[in-house]
């Protein structure tokens, strides 16, 4: 029997179906899945999934529940009647005896006889099971409480089939405040009180309020900013005595004659109507926090981030009464574990992985281990640079305007050099109308500075105290300033100090700031004006009060801020702040302590090192965790290389600066113990593609899929065995080489080399010495002229040869330090000479030697459906599938073996599904179908060093750059009808891309004397320089047809940059790259190849950050990269239909096309026209 009950009748609101709907003008949504939502849930979260959701929620029994076909009913009402509010007050009073609570309204929601959703395969054990439970939300002007009621035998099942997880999952009893945040937008506080069979089964048997089956929680007051506060009244053997049947009925039966009722303004749903209804709710104003003893029904899982309840009260609508059938009362079983203390055993996950958890008499606390700093819930390596990304929200009044400028989800990005306390903060999309006015408000960036200020001995910065779980509210009192149109673009504020006052859970600060505005010079004088404003901020956070032995924070700490610089970039609409910060005692302390280099940032430690202050001005530099060195110079520790088994079996280790990350291979997932275990799947498994087979490694064996879940293993040529264990066949026993040659066995193959005094390929040897190469002869000539016994004289250049006698593509002068590129004959390539200390991106034109032995198939392995990245390594092209924008690294495979080629550029034809490439070893241009088959060479003649290649999928043409001949050409897709577009004013052209829809062509010149990016129409007209300033070695280029954005990677400036052609501004997306070569785009991501890292790197354009890195199995240089799209971009140009009416080449231009003839075409069958 429920405490809050009615009889079915007039005025009821009832739901049966399960499609959400928000009623107009209301603030609460009731769903059939056992929750009360604070706003309409998004469509993608209409079914229960991972907790917490993005919206605020009260969940008395969150599960996939079934109310279709008459299985159950859900009733709700808002009740203002004195009898109901008095009853709610009594329940709250039992749970919180020290609180006086007089609610003015109550929302009562009842889920009656709801069934478990059973999915496609029904569980006979759940047949006929039904659950009945109730939630009451009671509110006064100052606080709100939730009351959950579970009648005995009301909960007959505790798990349901999840539509999202497609398996049986336990129900959840929980609260969540949804996505919150001021600077860091993140999950608000949430509490999970029951999420397993035992705790769910205890709901009807136990209590936290002293009354069986009744659970009470404080949910709306300042005390709940970091999570709900549960009641902590144990259920005793005598607690039920006063509630005999007679007394119980006299209190709880609320008939219609006892309650005034008025219907809601919305219409009651009919069968088949959506299942989500909304009722008004009250969010209470703030009041002073009150202490609450812990004690949930089970150890709650808490995660606390920025959240504070709003202060306003929303309007109330008229009450409504829903009548519910009486539930038959059964016997009472009083059994409850009164030990509700939270311990590390149940809450270790709340601590950082770099923290230790310790139990105390009243609860547990987290503390960072040595080498890390933070509040224990969040820990970062000491001295390690940190990036902070988040959102800014607020309203600002500018000048005399009465209309505020509103910020909603404005991006904030910060970079902090922790061992200097230097913070760099950028806030984007700031309109010009407010950007300049924000220049004096350096403390906006100072909030980040306080978080990561340099800590003087015995003092703590914001992150050490609060982690990233704090809520900051700021008040700025400012005189109105009107600059009369004389705007400033940057400014310098004087150093300032700020006092922070600490009390449990609250930090406050206030100060008066000054800044000076210098006006333009007039008559030899520059007038200046000093302005002041007040700055007050309150920071609330959750601290661990259980560890009474922890040293108390000083009541007052002083933040010292200097080197303050602010800048507003009008073109990029970005506001930037840079400040140096330290936290320590009030300045009447020892002045010597404040001069320690660790505190004033003059220590010279590496950016990945912590500065340890000593006596006076002494200090020591210590590399951060995950780095090693002397502190002045620190290098990353590659944990994956040094500890190959650190991630365990079925896992991949990815090294990151200062740390590493483990990822389970496909078909595996992390278990609760942190190991990778196989994913249970009832569908047939292709063990070959998922990597779950037990065949030998791919270098020795192949897995052959046989259909269903069966496969077989077979050793590769050159190996013998059963496929599960393959041994190398020693082809040198007996030798297959010439008798006058040495035989060298290699894994899966062998090589032959003629003995000294013989020459040949090892299979055929004749007497005579091997001919020396041009490079070897040149070296001998220079060294012989200088005197073999003497070192070369200063200023003499001696060429460098590789192990095969060929010229190394990059030659450097030993005395001057200048470097340049050479061709296969050792001749310097024009425009490649670089200054000392910089290496040009030279390409080797000589293919690696081919080892005679079992041949590798050269046919293309058909490409699976979907979008893929294709990238080139010497001798092969690999494919890397994309799922969304995520690289599926475990599924990377070789697409094409070409061991006799040096493949540089790649392009993809989305129409015919063909990949095109340039090869600088022959040289040649080739192509292959991704559906499978042998590759073909389409151009062999009159090529020097073809590098970049692009494709117009609409006009059916290819374009390429030749850095040896210094020209750009075009041809049809089969290599015919070649025409030179440009052969003047080109030095080392490399990257090239097309804009097929608009008829534009873009390319890079990495000429060291004058690097540039140029553009023209596809017919070669309207050629012009697009970018010329601040370029180094522009290598790769990509054009995104969807966003019409051109991006490039530069190995000289180590940057990724983008622009929209036709617009003057360009954007620096990412800096600090190693040695980028080629780039491609897909969605909001760029993917570039890097020579130094031998990797493919993903960059998210939206947040200007590298998000992932793929390291191929073969660690050699990566060259071209392109995106193999699953379908072509929409659009057309004037060459799309019937070749534009041209007899030969149709070359698109913006809004038109030009018909051109190939070069060296004789006859009259070709007509040129525009």
From TrEMBL:
<feature type="repeat" description="LDL-receptor class B">
    <location>
        <begin position="956"/>
        <end position="998"/>
    </location>
</feature>
<dbReference type="GO" id="GO:0017147">
    <property type="term" value="F:Wnt-protein binding"/>
</dbReference>
<keyword id="KW-0732">Signal</keyword>
<comment type="subunit">
    <text>Interacts with FBLN1. Interacts with LGALS3BP. Interacts with PLXDC1. Interacts with SVEP1.</text>
</comment>
<keyword id="KW-0130">Cell adhesion</keyword>
<dbReference type="InterPro" id="IPR036857">
    <property type="entry name" value="Thyroglobulin_1_sf"/>
</dbReference>
<dbReference type="InterPro" id="IPR000033">
    <property type="entry name" value="LDLR_classB_rpt"/>
</dbReference>
<dbReference type="GO" id="GO:0043394">
    <property type="term" value="F:proteoglycan binding"/>
</dbReference>
<keyword id="KW-0325">Glycoprotein</keyword>
<dbReference type="InterPro" id="IPR026823">
    <property type="entry name" value="cEGF"/>
</dbReference>
<feature type="domain" description="Nidogen G2 beta-barrel">
    <location>
        <begin position="384"/>
        <end position="593"/>
    </location>
</feature>
<feature type="region of interest" description="Disordered">
    <location>
        <begin position="259"/>
        <end position="306"/>
    </location>
</feature>
<dbReference type="GO" id="GO:0005886">
    <property type="term" value="C:plasma membrane"/>
</dbReference>
<feature type="repeat" description="LDL-receptor class B">
    <location>
        <begin position="913"/>
        <end position="955"/>
    </location>
</feature>
<keyword id="KW-0272">Extracellular matrix</keyword>
<dbReference type="InterPro" id="IPR049883">
    <property type="entry name" value="NOTCH1_EGF-like"/>
</dbReference>
<feature type="region of interest" description="Disordered">
    <location>
        <begin position="1"/>
        <end position="30"/>
    </location>
</feature>
<dbReference type="InterPro" id="IPR009030">
    <property type="entry name" value="Growth_fac_rcpt_cys_sf"/>
</dbReference>
<dbReference type="InterPro" id="IPR000152">
    <property type="entry name" value="EGF-type_Asp/Asn_hydroxyl_site"/>
</dbReference>
<dbReference type="InterPro" id="IPR011042">
    <property type="entry name" value="6-blade_b-propeller_TolB-like"/>
</dbReference>
<dbReference type="InterPro" id="IPR001881">
    <property type="entry name" value="EGF-like_Ca-bd_dom"/>
</dbReference>
<dbReference type="InterPro" id="IPR000716">
    <property type="entry name" value="Thyroglobulin_1"/>
</dbReference>
<keyword id="KW-0765">Sulfation</keyword>
<dbReference type="GO" id="GO:0060070">
    <property type="term" value="P:canonical Wnt signaling pathway"/>
</dbReference>
<feature type="repeat" description="LDL-receptor class B">
    <location>
        <begin position="999"/>
        <end position="1043"/>
    </location>
</feature>
<comment type="function">
    <text>Sulfated glycoprotein widely distributed in basement membranes and tightly associated with laminin. Also binds to collagen IV and perlecan. It probably has a role in cell-extracellular matrix interactions.</text>
</comment>
<dbReference type="GO" id="GO:0032836">
    <property type="term" value="P:glomerular basement membrane development"/>
</dbReference>
<dbReference type="GO" id="GO:0005518">
    <property type="term" value="F:collagen binding"/>
</dbReference>
<dbReference type="InterPro" id="IPR003886">
    <property type="entry name" value="NIDO_dom"/>
</dbReference>
<feature type="domain" description="Thyroglobulin type-1">
    <location>
        <begin position="772"/>
        <end position="842"/>
    </location>
</feature>
<dbReference type="InterPro" id="IPR024731">
    <property type="entry name" value="NELL2-like_EGF"/>
</dbReference>
<feature type="domain" description="EGF-like">
    <location>
        <begin position="684"/>
        <end position="727"/>
    </location>
</feature>
<dbReference type="GO" id="GO:0005604">
    <property type="term" value="C:basement membrane"/>
</dbReference>
<dbReference type="GO" id="GO:0042813">
    <property type="term" value="F:Wnt receptor activity"/>
</dbReference>
<keyword id="KW-0677">Repeat</keyword>
<dbReference type="GO" id="GO:0010811">
    <property type="term" value="P:positive regulation of cell-substrate adhesion"/>
</dbReference>
<keyword id="KW-0106">Calcium</keyword>
<keyword id="KW-0084">Basement membrane</keyword>
<feature type="disulfide bond">
    <location>
        <begin position="812"/>
        <end position="819"/>
    </location>
</feature>
<dbReference type="InterPro" id="IPR009017">
    <property type="entry name" value="GFP"/>
</dbReference>
<dbReference type="Pfam" id="PF12947">
    <property type="entry name" value="EGF_3"/>
</dbReference>
<feature type="domain" description="EGF-like">
    <location>
        <begin position="636"/>
        <end position="677"/>
    </location>
</feature>
């Amino acid at each position: 029997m429920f405490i809050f009950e009615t009889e079915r009748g007039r005025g009821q609101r009832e739901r049966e179906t399960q499609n959400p709907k928000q009623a107009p003008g209301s603030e609460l949504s009731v769903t059939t899945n056992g929750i009360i939502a604070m706003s309409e849930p998004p469509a993608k979260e209409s079914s229960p999934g991972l907790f917490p959701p993005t919206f605020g929620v009260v969940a008395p029994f969150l599960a996939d529940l079934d109310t279709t076909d008459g299985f159950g009913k859900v009733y709700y009402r808002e009740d203002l009647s004195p009898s109901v509010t008095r009853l709610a007050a009594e329940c709250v009073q039992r749970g919180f005896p020290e609180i006086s609570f007089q609610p003015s309204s109550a929302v009562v929601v009842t889920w009656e006889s709801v069934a478990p959703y059973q999915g496609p395969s029904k569980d006979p054990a759940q047949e006929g099971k039904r659950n009945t439970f109730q939630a009451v939300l009671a509110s006064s002007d100052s606080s709100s409480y939730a009351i959950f009621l579970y009648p005995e035998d009301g909960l007959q099942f505790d798990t349901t089939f999840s539509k999202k997880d497609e398996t049986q999952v336990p129900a959840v009893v929980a609260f969540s405040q949804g996505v919150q945040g001021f600077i860091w937008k993140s999950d608000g506080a949430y509490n999970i009180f029951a999420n397993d069979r035992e705790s769910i089964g205890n709901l009807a048997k136990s209590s936290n309020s002293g009354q069986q089956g009744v659970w009470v929680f404080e949910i709306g007051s300042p005390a709940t900013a970091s999570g709900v506060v549960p009641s902590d009244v144990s259920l005793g053997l005598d607690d039920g005595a006063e509630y005999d049947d007679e007394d119980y009925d006299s209190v709880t039966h609320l008939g219609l004659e006892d309650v005034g009722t008025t219907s809601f303004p919305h219409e009651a749903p009919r069968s088949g109507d959506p299942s989500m209804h909304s009722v008004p709710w009250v969010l209470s104003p703030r009041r002073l926090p009150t202490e609450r003893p812990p004690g949930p029904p089970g150890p709650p899982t808490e995660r606390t981030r920025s959240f504070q309840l709003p202060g306003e009260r929303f309007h109330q609508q008229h009450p409504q009464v829903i009548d519910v059938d009486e539930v038959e009362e059964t016997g009472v079983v009083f059994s409850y574990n009164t030990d509700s203390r939270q311990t590390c055993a149940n809450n270790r996950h709340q601590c950082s992985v770099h923290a230790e958890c310790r139990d105390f008499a009243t609860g547990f606390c987290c503390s960072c281990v040595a080498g890390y700093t933070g509040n224990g819930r969040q820990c970062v390596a000491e001295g390690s640079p940190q990036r902070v990304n988040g959102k800014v929200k607020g309203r600002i009044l500018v000048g005399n305007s009465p209309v505020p400028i509103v910020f909603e989800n404005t991006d904030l990005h910060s970079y902090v050099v922790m061992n200097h306390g230097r913070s760099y903060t950028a806030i984007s999309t700031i309109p010009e109308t407010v950007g300049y006015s924000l220049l004096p408000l350096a403390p906006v960036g100072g909030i980040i500075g306080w978080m990561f200020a340099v800590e003087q001995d015995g003092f703590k910065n914001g992150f050490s105290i609060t982690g990233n779980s704090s809520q900051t509210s700021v008040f700025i009192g400012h005189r109105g300033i009107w600059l009369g149109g004389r705007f400033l673009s940057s400014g310098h504020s004087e150093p300032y100090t700020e006092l922070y006052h600490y009390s449990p859970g609250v930090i406050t600060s206030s100060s008066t700031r000054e800044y000076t505005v210098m006006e333009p010079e007039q008559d030899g004088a520059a007038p200046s004006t000093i302005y002041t404003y007040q700055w007050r901020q309150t920071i609330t956070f959750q601290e661990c009060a259980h560890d009474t032995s922890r040293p108390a924070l000083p009541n007052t700490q002083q933040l010292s801020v200097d080197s303050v610089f602010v800048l507003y970039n009008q073109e990029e609409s970005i506001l930037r702040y840079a400040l140096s910060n330290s936290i320590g005692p009030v300045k009447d302390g020892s002045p010597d302590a404040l001069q320690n280099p660790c505190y004033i940032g003059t220590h010279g430690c590496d950016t990945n090192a912590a500065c340890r202050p000593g006596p006076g001005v002494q200090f020591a530099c210590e590399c951060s965790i995950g780095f090693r060195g002397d502190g002045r110079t620190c290098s990353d520790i590659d944990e994956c290389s040094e500890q190959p088994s650190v991630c365990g079996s079925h896992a991949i280790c990815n090294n990151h600066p200062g740390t590493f990350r483990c990822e389970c291979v496909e078909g595996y997932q992390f278990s609760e113990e942190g190991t990778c275990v196989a994913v249970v799947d009832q569908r047939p498994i292709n063990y070959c593609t998922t990597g779950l087979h037990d065949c030998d490694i791919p270098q020795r064996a192949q897995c052959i899929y046989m259909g269903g879940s069966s496969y077989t293993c077979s050793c590769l040529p050159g190996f013998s065995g059963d496929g599960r264990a393959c041994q190398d066949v020693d082809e040198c026993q007996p030798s297959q080489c010439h008798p006058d040659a040495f035989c060298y066995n290699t894994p899966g193959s062998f090589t032959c080399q003629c003995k000294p005094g013989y020459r040949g390929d090892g299979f055929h040897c004749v007497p005579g010495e091997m001919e020396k190469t041009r490079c070897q002869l040149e070296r001998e000539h220079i060294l012989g002229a200088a005197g073999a016994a003497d070192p070369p004289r200063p200023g003499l250049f001696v060429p460098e040869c590789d192990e095969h006698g060929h010229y190394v593509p990059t030659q450097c002068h030993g005395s001057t330090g200048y470097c340049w590129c050479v061709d296969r004959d050792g001749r310097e390539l024009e425009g490649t000479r670089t200054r000392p200390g910089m290496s040009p991106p030279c390409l080797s034109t000589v293919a690696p030697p081919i080892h005679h032995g079992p041949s590798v198939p050269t046919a293309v392995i058909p490409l699976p459906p979907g979008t893929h990245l294709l990238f080139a390594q010497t001798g092969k092209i690999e494919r890397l599938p994309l799922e969304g924008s995520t690289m599926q690294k475990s599924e990377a495979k070789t697409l094409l073996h070409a061991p006799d080629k040096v493949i540089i550029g790649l392009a993809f034809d989305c129409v015919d599904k063909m990949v095109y490439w340039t090869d600088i070893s022959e040289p040649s241009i080739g192509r292959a179908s991704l559906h499978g088959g042998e590759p073909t060479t389409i151009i062999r003649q009159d090529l020097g060093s073809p590098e970049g290649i692009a494709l117009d999928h609409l006009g059916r043409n290819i374009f390429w750059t030749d850095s040896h001949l210094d020209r750009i050409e075009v041809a049809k897709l089969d290599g015919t009808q070649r025409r030179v577009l440009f052969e003047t004013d080109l030095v080392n052209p490399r990257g090239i891309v097309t804009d097929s829809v608009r008829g534009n062509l873009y390319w890079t010149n990495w000429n060291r004397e004058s690097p540039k990016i140029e553009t023209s129409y596809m017919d070669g007209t309207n050629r012009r320089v697009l970018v010329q300033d601040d370029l180094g070695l522009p290598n790769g280029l990509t054009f995104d047809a969807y966003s019409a954005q051109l991006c490039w990677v530069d190995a000289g400036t180590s940057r990724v940059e983008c622009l929209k052609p036709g617009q003057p501004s360009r954007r620096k997306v990412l800096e600090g790259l190693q040695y980028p070569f080629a780039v491609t785009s897909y969605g909001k991501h760029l993917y570039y190849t890097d020579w130094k890292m031998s990797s493919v790197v993903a960059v998210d354009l939206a947040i200007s950050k590298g998000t992932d890195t793929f390291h191929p199995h073969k660690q050699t240089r990566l060259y071209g990269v392109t995106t193999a799209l699953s379908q072509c971009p929409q659009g057309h140009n004037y060459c799309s239909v019937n070749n534009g009416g041209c007899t030969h080449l149709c070359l698109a231009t913006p809004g038109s096309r030009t018909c051109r003839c190939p070069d060296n075409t004789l006859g009259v069958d070709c007509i040129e026209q525009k």
